[in-house]
Amino acid sequence: VHFVESGGGLVQPGGSLRLSCTASGFSISNEAMSWFRQAPGKDRELVARIQSLGLITYYPDSVKGRFAASRDNAKDTVFLQMNNLQPEHTAVYYCSTSPPQSWGQGTQVTVSS
To answer: Which residues in the chain come in under a pLDDT of 50?
Structure first.
């Protein structure tokens, strides 16, 4: 199971980014998928979970209303739309199955003016 995350970058406070994560050697169609982030010096934390059909999602209070997960099972890809980003959202973002089976390299998101 291999995941490749992309779409990160440097964005100003209040900006938006859309992250993508594509699985290879693995079909996500029947899997719940999650997005996580890890800020420097902190533990990796869950920021979004999306069930296999994409109809049910979960977000912790810290990102609720800002982040939205979606998926394209035909392309084995999940997305994370992040709006109104703030410096505290700076982290490396990862996707995996739920619960996690393996980790990709992640994509760096930096929010700074």
So the answer is: none
* Residues forming a β-bridge with 35: 48, 95
CA atoms within 13 A on the CB side of 96: 17
Question: Amino acid identity, residue 31?
Answer: E
| Max CA pair span of the chain | 40
Cβ neighbourhood burial of 74 (10 Å; 0-12, 13-18, 19+)? exposed
- The residues with which 91 forms a beta bridge, in sequence order, are 109
Please provide the DSSP assignment of 30-83 as one string. Answer: T--EEEEEE-TTS--EEEEEE-TTSS-EE--TTTTTTEEEEEEGGGTEEEEEE-
Question: What pLDDT, on the 0 to 100 scale, is given for residue 26?
Answer: 85
Burial grade of 18 (CB within 10 A; 0-12, 13-18, 19 or more): middle
Say how far apart CA 68 and CA 104 lie, in whole Å: 20
